[in-house]
Design a protein that fits this description.
about 300 residues; alpha/beta; 6-stranded parallel β-sheet; 3-stranded mixed β-sheet; 13 strands
Length: about 300
Amino acid sequence: MKVLLTGANGMVGKNILAIADQHQHEFLSPSSAELNLLNAESVREYLNEYNPDMIIHAAGIVGGIQANMAEPVKFLVENMQMGLNILTAAKDAGVKQFLNLSSSCMYPRGEVNPLSEELILKGELEPTNEGYALAKIVSTRLCEYINKEDSRLAYKTIIPCNLYGKYDKFAPNHSHMIPAVIRKLDEAAKAGLTEIDIWGDGKARREFMYAEDLADFVFYAIANFKAMPQNLNVGLGTDYSINEYYQAIADVVGFTGSFKHDFTKPVGMRQKLIDDKKLKAFGWTYSTTLTAGIKKTYQFYVSEHCND
């Protein structure tokens, strides 16, 4: 198939393209200059010119708690505009298959874990990333509506857990937890620091999957798209505490100091673990352990000198 991949320059997009040559598909991977997802007319013109068989929508404005809290308007408006533009243009162009990448942050903050696909819009969202979550909910629902109106259009959504890995962002104010902690502890080890702070009590639990595993899933989904559920969680089905992540990263980067907890900082949801029953029934499972994933990500960080 001819597959249009949005967000080809992001972490998920780069991991997909890194293994694309192992599969028999032609990938269109335009830059934001070539395909401006915030411009509806630009999107329509691109689809009419290149006529893809399938679209994988992996583009988005992403960041950790700090970025989400600092720029909620950007996270809501731009993510929603991109989703609406690419989905409506794809529908009008008659693109038959659409794989929408959402996020587990769109699940209600107060629900009992693990979080199943049926919980979307069943409760209040986590305030620290509400704008981003709302945008993801809109795209997810729109996929459902398009398929409901025209069953020939298979527009489906995967809901990954938190991700990390090669091509991640390591900038202090814009990165997610694992890359941020890798940089933080690496710099601390090199500077000979003996103590590092952790936001909150460190007992909040998170589920992080190595991004290369998600890329592997994407190709599995392409090959088995008809059998894939409308909405599908993609993750590990197991989680770790923030304290455990810090220690695992410290062991890899060589930080031997101690940790102190800063109780004045926000921590987000206490737990965010996806229910992987449907994923297992679909026949896919991850392959990279936490330690192996951290080692590969740290090697990438060191080799690429991601110190911007």
